[in-house]
Amino acid sequence: MAPLIAVVDDDPSVREGIESLMRSVGLKVRVFASAEEFLEAARPGETDCLVLDVRLGGMSGVDLNRRLVAGDYRTPVVFITAHGSDDLARREAASDWTAAYLTKPFSEDELLDAVNAALKWEPRG
User: Would you list the domain boundaries of the chain?
Assistant: First the structure.
């Protein structure tokens, strides 16, 4: 069975592009426009990798990741952001389950490499 990738980004074009890319390489994917939508509709424990925008309207991607870790969900996260120079956001996003941190725009290969690495992720510590 193909791994399930969840994508949470408030930009429809980013969601659609990542969804198309993941499907093109045979991965299952579900997309969400917000952290709240993900929490309401997804089953975090069934997600093999989470591609998560750092800054979202409402609950941030960083806050969603903290909530998942606090809830004992062990899902590797590939953070994506248009604010790559924001060192505070990068530090806040860092957790044992942060597999990668990509700055938009990133290449398809960069994202696929990050997701593939996340699917093999062993947390620090």
Answer: 4-47+63-114
CA separation for the pair 35, 44 (Å, rounded): 11
Cα(97)–Cα(12) distance, integer angstroms: 25
Kindly report the CATH class assigned to 4-47+63-114.
Answer: alpha beta
Q: d(Cα 36, Cα 20) in Å, to the nearest integer?
A: 23
* Token output for 116: 């593939």
> In angstroms, what CA-CA distances link 119 with 55, 99, 108?
23, 9, 16
pLDDT at 124 over 60: no
Residue 102, token pair as written in the block: 């990509």
- pLDDT (tens digit, 9 = 90+) per residue, 65-80? 989 988 888 889 999 9
